[in-house]
Write a structure and sequence with these properties.
single chain, 121 residues, mainly alpha, 5 helices, 2 strands, 8% strand, DsrC-like_N, DsrC-like_dom_sf, cytoplasm, sulfur carrier activity, DsrC/TusE
């Protein structure tokens, strides 16, 4: 639990400014854009591919449909579904795309708010 308010910063994008917290997470997921994803991914040392965007689009669609960011286990199920991957192989695939983790990179690049507490399932 945090004991102090977030330090907010404005990030200039081609489509306008967005506000991020001190860790680079969007404060309003509805202001996400592919430009935000590209800039944030580059800052994380990631060059986005079609596969990255499949995961990002899944995270965003789940959030839009259910009102919350999906746990990692849902993303692992998505990655494994139709690809014949075991849970372990899906986890390896996720970490190959986002080496520092689901919350640290995938959720941040997908424009989700930084979680206060998180279960990665």
């Amino acid at each position: 639990m945090r004991t102090r308010p977030d330090k907010l910063t404005e990030l200039a994008l081609p489509g306008g400014k967005v506000t991020v917290d001190e860790y680079g997470y969007l404060t309003d997921p509805f202001l996400w854009s592919p430009a935000f994803a590209e800039i944030t991914a580059a800052a994380e040392g990631i060059t986005l591919t079609r596969r990255h965007y499949e995961v990002i689009d899944f995270i965003r669609a789940e959030r839009d449909e259910h009102g919350i960011t999906p746990d990692q286990r849902h993303v692992l199920r998505f990655l494994g579904h139709g690809r014949g991957l075991t849970k372990s192989q899906a986890k390896d695939a996720l970490y190959a795309l986002f080496p520092q983790g689901y919350v640290k990179q995938a959720c941040k690049i997908a424009g989700m708010k930084q979680p206060r507490a998180w279960s990665t399932g």
